[in-house]
Automatic annotation (TrEMBL):
InterPro entries: Glyco_hydro/deAcase_b/a-brl, YdjC-like. This is Carbohydrate deacetylase. Keywords: Carbohydrate metabolism, Hydrolase, Magnesium, Metal-binding. GO terms for molecular function: deacetylase activity; hydrolase activity; metal ion binding. Gene3D superfamilies: Glycoside hydrolase/deacetylase.
Amino acid sequence: MPKARVKLIVTGDDFGYCRRRNQGIAECFLAGAVSNVSLLVNGSAVSDAVQLAKKHCIPIGLHANLSEGIPVCRALKRKSTLLNPEGFFHGKMGIRTRLNEGLLNMAEVKQELIAQVELFCQLTGHLPHHMDGHQHVHVLPEIRHVFAEVLEDYGITYTRVPIEPDLPRCGWIAPTLMDFYLGVEKDSLNTIEVFQKHGIRWPDIYIGLSTMGKNMSIQSILKAIDNATAAHLDNEDSTSPPPSSFLCPGQGVRTVTLELMTHPGYPSIPPTGGCGEGPDDFSQSWERLHELETLTKPDLQEHYRSRNIQLCAFKDLAI
């Protein structure tokens, strides 16, 4: 098996959620611990996030949000199937329930996704380098088709497909959370053909579910990278290489692209933060700071160098 050179995208999600999250994510970027961020355009601190991205030249994509807070499309704020009686999105599980019941209007989903892309462009001055979904809503049935159409229409090439190779063997994840993760993976597997049809691409490997929050450590990150890379190369030996993998000229060394999803930052302090209804428990958790401290440890950066792992952003991937 040829030795792999890994191009690693470390994405800091929820940029724009609150100033404390923004500060932590920016510190991670400046420390070389995060190489890419995903912006919530309906976040309470989105303007602060955009200013930080411009100041520090942080590569930035769109974290499309259909589950938390309020929409950015003005027409949908008055009345929409995407909103509960209080005027907020239905929540991480609520949107899935409403979708299963056939109660979401896909035309309204498209309206909101377009409005978020347009607002992103107004704020940053450019199209998102990539676009994924807050709480993985972009791979949900029906929504995946609308999401893919919007990406193709705008020429946004890259997204995230959250299928983590070693996930079923991660016994440290709580059963209820594992059930949700496995549901996300099932939805993602059913999304691949849709995204391929629309010419959308994603890194060869995704990790981040097994290393989130308290489960993040230098060892867990490196183990996830090693196991996923080995599994990918074994599969590649028996099939044709996917389009985002390639051989380094004259070296015979396979380059593999990998995204590590992270949620670092300083915990939100109520009532500040959120996407219109205040910060949730996830954003207030000490686990946000734990991720920040783990990702910025010098030992982790040294391990990357010794393992021939190169940090990059979605905008650096060859198209």
